[in-house]
From TrEMBL:
UniProt similarity note: Belongs to the peptidase S1 family.
Record InterPro entries: Peptidase_S1 (IPR050430), Peptidase_S1_PA (IPR009003), Peptidase_S1_PA_chymotrypsin (IPR043504), Peptidase_S1A (IPR001314), Trypsin_dom (IPR001254), TRYPSIN_HIS (IPR018114)
Signal peptide span: 1-20
Organism this protein belongs to: Bdellovibrio bacteriovorus (strain ATCC 15356 / DSM 50701 / NCIMB 9529 / HD100)
Superkingdom of source: Bacteria
Protein name per Swiss-Prot or TrEMBL: Putative trypsin
Keyword Hydrolase (UniProt): no
Pfam families according to UniProt: Trypsin
Gene3D superfamilies: Trypsin-like serine proteases (2.40.10.10)
Gene Ontology biological-process annotations: proteolysis
């Protein structure tokens, strides 16, 4: 198990990369909602989002902490962000499926991890003041020790041949903060929200969260879904704020999952995991 110093270091890394500074914003007022990622709604137990979205649970001194979110992309493979796992080698981490977060480390209900792999070229990009402004290759895979239980539904990944366009609606999901300004409010379960895609920037999807709706701290690694006639398709992996946004109410960054098709397939094969499906379905 990690010691306290390493845990704090890991959580600090998550705060710098994937979350926000607790500062007021002058351009967007609080919505008053306490049942959202930011401005969204609770996920229902029978929702397709609940069947495919997972929480990464860290066992710290016998207590479960939800540190990030992920997406089930095959019966034993979870897609998440590299920054969620980069400092957690040797830690006791579980995967949790369900609309309500666990309050105890019950190993009969949490899913054990066999191994995980982060992208070998993952790195942060800093500005002249030494502040991390974005991340490159922020993608990782988790192989479950056993197949996901009955009721879990792996989702396909959008194929690299399909082009996304600004203005499309993305469905975001995660177990992160409900409010990040002044007094952070942690979530007790899975929440979802719909936002427009603002632009595509290199290997990153930029989401418009200026209506006080979007992903926040703890949602890192979680999905941006397209809702199609055949079900959910994952297109993005929650990465962090865009363009030095001071909170979750400006623009967010998502790693474009389709651009990492080779990494996903090669690492899945190397770990002996069930291969995910890449689809061209988008409507």
């Amino acid at each position: 198990m990690l010691n306290s110093k390493l845990l704090l270091s890991s959580l600090l890394l998550l705060t710098l990369v994937a979350c926000t500074k607790n500062e007021k914003t002058n351009n967007v007022e609080l919505t008053g909602s306490e049942t959202s990622i930011i401005g969204g709604e609770k996920a229902d137990a029978n929702s397709p989002v609940t069947a495919s979205t997972v929480s990464l649970i860290y066992n710290y001194q016998g207590k479960p902490y939800s540190i990030c979110t992920g997406t089930l992309i095959s019966k034993n493979l979870v897609l998440t962000a590299a920054h969620c796992l980069a400092e957690l080698q040797g830690a006791e981490i579980f995967v949790h499926l369900g609309e309500v977060l666990p309050t105890e480390v019950d190993e009969t209900k949490l899913l054990r991890i066999a191994e995980f792999e982060t992208h070998k070229e993952y790195h942060l990009v800093y500005n002249e003041q030494g502040f991390p402004v974005t991340g490159r290759n922020d993608v990782a895979l988790i192989k479950l020790l056993l197949d996901a239980p009955e009721g879990a539904v792996p989702v396909p990944v959008l194929d690299e041949s399909v082009e996304l366009k600004a203005g499309e609606t993305l469905l975001l999901a995660g177990y992160g903060l409900l409010n990040e300004i002044d007094n952070p409010i942690p979530a007790t379960g899975l929440n979802l929200v719909r936002v427009p895609l603002a632009k595509l920037w290199e290997s990153i999807l930029v989401t418009d969260q200026t209506n006080a709706k979007g992903a926040c701290s703890g949602d890192s690694g979680g999905p941006a879904y397209l809702e199609t006639s055949k079900g959910l398709v994952v297109v993005g992996i929650t990465r962090g704020p865009h363009d030095l946004a001071p909170d979750c109410r400006h623009f967010g960054e998502y790693t474009n999952a389709s651009m990492f098709k080779t990494f996903i397939l090669e690492e899945a094969a190397a770990m002996g995991a069930d291969a995910p499906v890449f689809t061209t379905e988008r409507q």
